[in-house]
Amino acid sequence: MSVKHRWNTVAIVxxxxxxxxxxxxxxxxxxxxxxxxxxxxxxxxxKAKERKAVDSITTDLxxxxxxxxxxxxxxxVEQIVEHVxxxxxxxxxxxxxxxxGSTKGTIVEALASDLGRGVSFVxxxxxxxxxxxxxxxxxxxxFVGRTVVxxxxxxxxxxxxxxxxxxxxxxxxxxxxxxxxxxxxAVASTSHVPHLLASALANATPGDLLPLAAGGWLxxxxxxxxxxEMWRQILVENRVHVLKSLAKxxxxxxxxxxxxxxxxxDRLLSLLEAGKKTRDSVGS
Amino acid sequence: MSVKHRWNTVAIVxxxxxxxxxxxxxxxxxxxxxxxxxxxxxxxxxKAKERKAVDSITTDLxxxxxxxxxxxxxxxVEQIVEHVxxxxxxxxxxxxxxxxGSTKGTIVEALASDLGRGVSFVxxxxxxxxxxxxxxxxxxxxFVGRTVVxxxxxxxxxxxxxxxxxxxxxxxxxxxxxxxxxxxxAVASTSHVPHLLASALANATPGDLLPLAAGGWLxxxxxxxxxxEMWRQILVENRVHVLKSLAKxxxxxxxxxxxxxxxxxDRLLSLLEAGKKTRDSVGS
Lengths: 284, 284
What we know:
The structure is a homodimer. By secondary structure, chain A is an alpha/beta fold. Chain A has helices at residues 17-28, 42-50, 61-64, 77-90, 105-110, 158-169, 180-204, 215-221, 228-237, 239-261, 265-280; strands spanning 7-13, 32-38, 56-58, 70-73, 96-99, 120-121, 123-126, 147-151, 174-177.
C-alpha cells in the first residue's frame, strides 16, 4: 500500500450515493481536513451535511472549489465535462480534478487538453454504484474492496495519475489502470448491456405474472430499479460499445434458442455448463 | 389460516435443498410424527439425517413409502412421473402424493389417470429454489412467505387439493391455484427465460473482463450458477412456453436496440422508465 495522502480541502460536486460515500470515507479515515459539498438542491446538500458526509455546503460551484486541492465530480455523465471546466476556472492553481462517471471516452477526450493554471483532470470510475441512488444510502465503506478504474490520457503526468490512484487506494479500493476506450468497451459488457437486459426483462414480464416472480427474477431485474435518466445518459454516451457488446450477447442467446428449438439437449447442457463455469469463477 | 393437518408418516423422495427444507420445516412445526428420507446416494441421505431433516433413510423407494400417508417427490423433473408411479405401487391405500417440480404440464398430464387404490397425485411447485443446491443449504424457513403453485387436474378431488394446499400453508407459504398449463406459461416468463438470459450473459462475458464485473453483473448472472443438468431438464420440459416467452423478450430487446441505434433518447428513456416502474412495483 502507498502512503496515504492527506488533503486540506476536498470539494465534492454532486452528493448522491457516490459523492456522499466519498465524503464519509474521507472523514472516517481522517484523509481530509475540510470537505465541501456542492450541488444544485439545498435539500440534498443539507441531508449530506446532516449525515456528516461534508463539512460545508454550497450551490455555487465556483465558490465551493476555490480552496480545493482535490475536486471530485459526482454528477451525471452528461454534465461531467461542463462541471470539470467550471471547477478548473475557479479552483486553486495546480488542483487535481477527478470524477466517478460510468463512461470515460467522451469525458477524458474532451478534457485531455490543457485546463490552464496547472489544473489536471484524471478520470475515475468506482464500480460501486447501486440501484439505490441518493445520499441517504451513502456509506463510509462503499469503496472497500471495490474496483476503481482510473483512466489517464496521453498528457496525464505520472504524479497526477499516482495521486488519484492513491486517493482510491487510501479508501481500500483496488485500482485498475485502463485507457478510457478500453474501459468503455469493458463496462459495455459487464455493466451497460446487463442493465439493458435487466430493464428489457422487467419490461417483458406481464404485470399479472409478477406474483410468480421469485428469487431469480428479482436478482436479474434488480438494477432495472436504477435511475432511468442516469442510465439513459450512460447508454447513449457509450452507445457504440453497448451496441457491439449487445450484438455479441444476441449471438449467444441465438445459440440457446437454436439448441432449444432443435431439441439439442447436449448443446443446451454445454451452454448451461459454460455459463455456470463462468459464474462460479467469480464471487457470490 | 386453515387448521394444520398433522401427518403420521411423510416420505420425501430426494433430499436436496427443497426436500431437506421440507423435512426441517415439518419437524420444526411438529407436523409429522415420522419423516422418511429416500434417495439414490447414501452420503446425501446421511447428511440429511445428520441435519435432522429426516428421521430415517433408505435408498429403496418401495420400502420408504410403505407407511406414508403423504409422499413428496423432490427429484429432478424428468424423473418425477416415474417416481410417483413407483411410490403409488407401494404406498398405503389412499395416500396422497405431491412434488416440487419446476414444470407441471407433462407431469400432471401423465399422472391425471387413476393411480389405483385411491392414491392421488396433486402437483406443487414451491417458488423457493436457489442456485445453491443440496441438503447442506436446506432451512426450516425456506417456504415462509414464498409462493407455492398447486396445480390440480380434472380428476383431482376437492379434499385432495385442500390437503396439499394446507400442507404448504401450514409451512407459512402462500398457495396459488393454477392449471398446469397456466403455471408453465407463467414460469417460462418469470423463471425459465430469466435463467436462460443469466446463463447467456455469463457465457457472453469475456473471461478477462470478469475483474470488472460489479454488483449488477453479479446479481443478473447469479442463477446461472444453478445446476446445469437440472436446468437443462426444466428448459426442455417447458420448451414450447420458453420459446414463446423468449420471443416476447427478444421483441422488447429489439426495441431497446432500435432506440439506441437511432439515438432516440426519448424512446430509450421511456423504455428504461417502464422497466423501473415494473421493478419498483415488487419487493427488493
